[in-house]
Amino acid sequence: LRLRRELTELISMRSKILCTRCPAGWLQFAGTCYLFSTDAKPWMEAKDSCAGLGGQLAIVNSELENTRVFWLGLSDMHKEGDWQWVDGRSLSLSFWGSGEPNNVGQHGEDCATVSSRGLWNDATCSGAEAWICERSC
Fold first, then answer.
1. What pLDDT is attached to residue 63?
2. Paired residues of 28 in beta bridges
3. CB of 122 within 8 A of CB of 109?
4. What span, in angstroms and rounded, lies between the C-alpha atoms of 3 and 70?
5. What local confidence, expressed as pLDDT, does residue 118 receive?
6. Where is the C-type lectin domain (predicted)?
């Protein structure tokens, strides 16, 4: 029974390490496929584009992934201050910049972006930013 469990774990790890089934144009990283946009869109349009491609806006699960995204699949548009990923999970790991999130402006800031330094910022969802989709291999 122990041997079977260890074999199952090894097979699972192997598929993550040797992921070669990403669609054309997608890049593999840590067992996940990523598609980097060549255009800028508002958050909701980027989210819909990813869904149409069989993925979702990128969710950051590690500091290493945090250097690879623009629009994050993270928002508090349903309830101010309650940040959730596009898959419905609550925010547990974060890399907010100093003073963020701050919800500045007349209409507030309900969608998250990441800077080239890896720091997060809450931004107006209607602004156009580059975006990254992710999907399983």
1. 74
2. 33
3. yes
4. 42
5. 85
6. 29-134
CA–CA separation, 108 and 131 (whole Å) = 20
**Both tokens of residue 3?**
């041997």
Measured in residues, the chain has a length of 137
What span, in angstroms and rounded, lies between the C-alpha atoms of 128 and 111? 11
Cα–Cα distances (Å) from 119 to 24, 40, 71, in that order, read 30, 19, 12
| CA–CA separation, 114 and 70 (whole Å) | 5
Q: How far apart are CA 69 and CA 72, in angstroms?
A: 7
Cα–Cα distance between 135 and 22 in angstroms, integer?
A: 9
Q: Which fold has domain 2-136?
A: Mannose-Binding Protein A; Chain A (3.10.100)
Domain boundaries, the chain: 2-136
* pLDDT score recorded for residue 31: 84
pLDDT along the chain (137 residues), means of 10: 67 56 88 90 97 93 65 94 96 95 93 88 93 88
